[in-house]
Design a protein that fits this description.
Blueprint: H1 2-35, H2 38-55, H3 63-85, H4 90-96, E1 103-105, H5 111-116, H6 123-130, H7 134-145, H8 150-157, H9 161-178, H10 186-202, H11 205-210, E2 212-221, E3 233-236, H12 238-247, E4 255-260, E5 263-270, E6 273-283, E7 286-293, H13 296-299
Helix pairs in contact: 1-2, 1-3, 2-3, 3-7, 3-8, 7-8, 7-9, 8-9
Length: 309
């Protein structure tokens, strides 16, 4: 009898794990959009699993919705903790912050078809989300990106549904005001990024300027590198950004095209290790934004798209 109970218990645990795995992809997507960190997103999903294990699925009518709200609550706690311990001013962090990128090999076939199936969010949007207050970010991500009703979000942020709706509305305005509609044509993106690389490799300053929008913005997140040529920084303007690009043109020779959060970008690799990842926004045939992750610690944890990249 005892053995039968243990067997039933083991089967129940296995079934619960299988049901959880059915939702893991969405939970990680929620957490990544909330946190901008792949490692923290994994931790948040794992915490959701632990909470499910302690609670059990009995009495949970919609497991997916329950897990999504639990993951959202975990992420909100992480964001609040991050905000509380932040040392630098928020404006400075926003200026240089570049989220963890999701890398994929550039498709050999139809790039448009690949783009349609890329379940990722642009780094530029994640940068904007980083500037939101934690509760605003939660309301926007869960409602606008994952269609979670305000009635379900309200208990997480400890506000009424009407107040939660206002949080999302305020976040939506900030996202709209800060966002630029980038070119969705992956083939066109590739042409522009290749022109940028060619100009960098050739040392052709004027050609580099010509591919940049006059108001292009460069963000470099170099993490703990501190001051100097590789320091975190934010600069604006075609000629200024071109000058900065020239300082890093030694990396252009080792740069390879890749899909970075669904857009054509580059990964510079030396001796099999990534030295930088660049996310590029393209509008009307010119580069409007360059987001460079050069933090050695974060780069060391990235998975390159293909083994021989």
């Amino acid at each position: 009898m005892e053995g039968e109970r243990e067997t039933r218990g083991a089967r129940g645990d296995q079934r619960l794990a299988e049901r959880f795995e059915e939702h893991r992809g969405q939970l990680k997507a929620v957490a990544y959009r909330m946190l901008g960190s792949l490692a923290e997103a994994e931790d948040a999903v794992q915490e959701a699993w632990l909470r499910l294990g302690r609670t059990g699925a009995d009495g949970i009518g919609n497991l997916g919705a329950w897990l999504t709200t639990v993951t959202g609550r975990v992420c909100l706690d992480l964001l609040r903790s991050r905000t509380a311990r932040r040392e630098e001013p928020m404006t400075e962090a926003f200026d240089t912050f570049v989220p963890d990128p999701v890398l994929r090999a550039l498709p050999q076939g139809d790039p448009e078809e690949e783009a349609l199936h890329t379940d990722s969010v642009g780094l530029a949007l994640l940068v904007v989300l980083e500037a939101l207050e934690p509760a605003e970010r939660l309301a926007f991500v869960l409602h606008d990106m994952f269609a979670v009703p305000f009635d379900d979000i309200a208990p997480i942020v400890e506000r009424s549904p009407a107040a939660t709706r206002q949080l999302a509305s305020r976040a939506r305005r900030r996202v709209r005001d800060a966002s630029v509609e980038a070119t969705p044509d992956v083939g066109r993106q590739r042409q522009v990024v290749e022109a940028f690389l060619a100009a960098s490799r050739a040392g052709d300053f004027e050609a580099l300027v010509s591919v940049l929008h006059p108001d292009v913005v460069l963000r470099v997140d170099a993490g703990v590198l501190g001051s100097g040529a590789g320091a975190s920084k934010r600069v604006r303007g075609a000629r200024t950004v071109a000058g900065q690009a020239f300082r890093f043109r030694h990396l252009a020779g080792s740069a390879r095209l890749a899909l970075v959060n669904g857009a054509v970008g580059t990964v510079a690799v030396q001796e099999g290790r990534p030295q930088s990842v660049t996310y590029v926004t393209v509008v009307d045939g010119r580069v409007t934004g360059l987001y460079i992750l050069a933090d050695p610690d974060r780069l060391s944890r990235l998975d390159l798209p293909v083994p021989d990249f």
